[in-house]
Amino acid sequence: MTEYEAIIGLETHIQLNTATKIFCGCKADSWFDPPNTNICPVCTGLPGILPVLNREVVEKAVILAAAMHAEIRQTSFFDRKNYFYPDLPKGYQISQYDQSLARGGYLDLPVPTPDHQTYIRHVSIWKLHMEEDAGKTKNENGRRLIDFNRCGVPLVEMVTGPDLRTADEAAQYLTRLRQLLRWLGISEADMEKGHLRCDANVSIRPAGATHLNPKTEIKNVNSIEAVRDAIQKEVERQIREVEAGRRIEAWTLEWDEDAGVLRKMRSKETEADYRYFREPDLLPVFVDDEWKKAILADLPELPLERKARFIRQYGLPEYDADILTSERRLSDYYEGAVKAYGGDPKRVSNWMMNDVLRMINERGTNAGELNLLPAYLAEIIRLVDANTINISTGKSLLVKVEETHRAPGKIVQDEGLARVSDDAAIRGVAGEVIVENPKEVASYRSGKVTLMGWFVGQVMRKMRGKADPNLARAILEELLK
Questions:
Q1: pLDDT, tens digit, 9 for 90 and up, residues 144-164
Q2: Domains plus CATH for the chain?
Q3: Contacts of 418 (CB under 8 A, 6+ apart)
Q4: Distance (Å, rounded) from C-alpha 69 to C-alpha 107?
């Protein structure tokens, strides 16, 4: 059998998290609102209305374009994309065609392999433009219902080149894109709520070939795992078709996630079908150098760049750096704690990975909302380092700081949590343990030296974990002689 490779390109529609829609003042995010309650004459396409461009949409689109290394055009235009769907009230969609906001761009995608290695897949960006969303339809009790709430919601459509080769690479691209959108603060990127939607273009060819064959488009995929599954199923189907001597037709396919199958929807449209022309009711978008500079003044260090810096600057393992840069607020928290601590950055990473992340997950919050400030985490680590408290007390102190909003040092002082290093105090308790446990003393003195850990544990229990364990061990060894 011939060996084949998949050729995959992804079209993503990204809902920007603006307060209002792209061309009117209606609320943009209406996921939880009743149908047809966030609409007006503009977004429902009533006669005689005029759209007015939302400035914030342009600014967020410029931020994304810069993060994708795209060229930002000074002048771009809106166009009418003509097609008829029941949920498109104007009979056309306001989009951008040949003179869009941005041109080119790329994302260098790190892809993990089963043997824990990583390779880089260079994914080019063919299109990046602003547009309005359509409404949505659903079937209920034999009727087709239309909700116009989503009409006019601001989108950025981004189309990759045919650069991805496996379903796993496609899933990794969406994972990194979702991370980037949240990192930049321009989209919630929740696929289940339609903030990030993906269509996949899929074709196959013999391995090593350079030509492109007819492709199919997979639509209506609402999770990263579903994208992976749908692409894999379509690649397998195309291989079976070609091996049977049949041609691949350029169809648009619908993914039925419940059944795990692809179904034909219609023949695939071409750009000529949409009869693009300039939108006459909107002026050109002009992003001059001064405005672009103001927009990009606060563009943050990007996730992959920060991950590389954490490895280089702080000496973190790649695994730690990857997790600590998975979310921007977590990354900022770690760096703030490192600066406040002033010691080994890996020590801060260990506390973050083992304890702070657990707290975040259990409480369903994020690092930016913790009462346990980065400086407080650093203070707790320093208290443990100085033997003022033991590790167990330090871990419980994390929770107490989070619940009370009080500084760690103040809690240690008020609750008497500091470790006891007083020789006389520990000696007195150690003597009590020896008197109360003659059987264990006899066993130890007859050669069962492993009981020393048990004796130390008894002293620690009596002193509520506050005793210096090293000093307790030394005193017990002396007394037991």
A1: 999 999 999 999 999 999 999
A2: 4-294 (no CATH), 301-414 (no CATH), 423-480 (1.10.10.410)
A3: 388, 389, 412, 466
A4: 8
Within 10 A of 4 (CB to CB), how many other CB atoms are there?
Answer: 17
Token pair 């339809």 is found at: 137
**Distances in Å between the alpha carbon of 299 and those of 47, 98, 113, 151, 296?**
40, 27, 31, 29, 5
CA 130 to chain centre: 22
Residues 6+ apart with CB under 8 A from 127: 100, 157, 158, 159
Task: Read off the tokens for 229.
Answer: 């599954």
- Compute the distance between CA of residue 99 and CA of residue 78 in angstroms, rounded to an integer: 8
Q: Residue 183 CA to chain centroid, in angstroms? A: 8
SS3 string of 254-306? EEECCCCEEEEEEECCCHHHHCCEECCCCCCEECCHHHHHHHHHHCCCCHHHH
User: Residue 471: what residue type?
Assistant: L
Residue 94 backbone class (left: φ over 0; alpha: ψ -120 to 50; beta: rest): beta
pLDDT on residue 112? 87
pLDDT at site 85: 86
State the pLDDT at residue 419: 64
Reference 182, options 338, 296, 63, 95; nearest CA is 63
List Cβ neighbours of 309 (8 Å cut-off, separation of 6 or more): 301
Q: Are the CB atoms for 67 and 177 separated by under 8 Å? A: no
Rounded to a whole number, what is the largest CA-CA distance in the chain? 101
DSSP assignment letter at 34: P
Residue 248 contacts residue 264 (beta carbons within 8 Å): no
Closest CA to 383 of 415, 357, 353, 424: 415
Q: What is the pTM of this model?
A: 0.85
Other Cβ atoms less than 10 A from the Cβ of 281: the count is 13
The number of angstroms, rounded, from the C-alpha of 245 to the middle of its chain's C-alpha atoms is 43
Nearest to 43 by CA among 20, 17, 12: 20
> How far, in whole angstroms, is CA 76 from its chain's centroid?
30
Q: How many CA atoms lie within 13 A of 177 on its CB side?
A: 32
Burial label for 76, CB within 10 Å (0-12, 13-18, 19+), is buried
Cα–Cα separations (whole angstroms), residue 78 to 129, 256, 276, 278 = 9, 34, 10, 6
Split at pLDDT 50, 70, 90, the class of 414 is: confident
b (16+ CB within 10 A) / e for 326-346: bbbebbebbbbbbebbeeebe
Contact call for residues 390 and 432 (beta carbons, < 8 A): no
| Helix, strand and coil percent figures for the chain, each rounded to 5 | 40, 20, 35
